[in-house]
Design goal:
With 161 residues, the chain is of the alpha/beta class. The chain has 3 helices and 10 strands. The strands form 2 sheets. The protein has an 8-stranded mixed sheet with strand order 9-8-7-6-2-3-1-10. It has a two-stranded antiparallel sheet with strand order 4-5. The longest helix is centred in the first third of the chain and has 15 residues.
Length: 161
């Protein structure tokens, strides 16, 4: 059974606004949620913006994370005793599916990892409605969650929940 990813609304909103700021309305940008696994759920507790790490390149229709940036990210996660629980990036329009490049190159090849796509370079106020939610199944396969099914994999919690 797939784990549910839980994230505090405040962390979700700061992620959205951080991606919005870094995209400047003109380029793809990305981050990773770090957190813990607890039974049948994962809890996101930290966000690392990949665009703040060396060698990361964002363009209108592409985002590339350098090997050095990935190494720094993994080292940071180990220092904190956390794992990658979410791979998050933006797309320019309202299309929030995964591109072929996205499907082939997640930040981590872990079965159950969620990849989220925020629409329109995360313009506007933070909202879960319209976000693409995809789960890595292994061997390059993904499952997309839509509508009410999103809540079975991603739960926004009020602070202190």
């Amino acid at each position: 059974m797939a784990r549910t990813l839980r994230i505090a609304r405040k962390l979700f909103e700061s992620t959205w606004l951080g991606l919005q700021q870094r995209s400047q309305g003109a380029q793809e940008t990305a981050c990773v949620w770090l957190g813990n696994q607890d039974g049948e759920r994962e809890i996101a507790t930290e966000v690392i913006f990949l665009d703040d790490l060396p060698g990361t390149i964002g363009r209108r229709l592409q985002h590339r994370t350098s090997r050095e940036a990935v190494r720094i990210l993994i080292d940071r996660a180990r220092e904190l005793g956390l794992t990658i629980v979410g791979d998050v990036h933006t797309h320019p329009g309202l299309w929030v599916d995964l591109s072929e490049v996205d499907r082939a190159h997640p930040i981590e090849y872990r079965i159950g990892l969620l990849a989220l796509v925020f629409p329109a370079f995360a313009k506007g106020p933070p909202r879960l409605d319209g976000v693409g939610v995809h789960e890595y199944l292994g061997s390059g396969d993904w499952k997309t969650f839509e509508g009410e099914d999103v809540a079975s994999r991603l739960v926004l919690e009020e602070d202190g929940s």
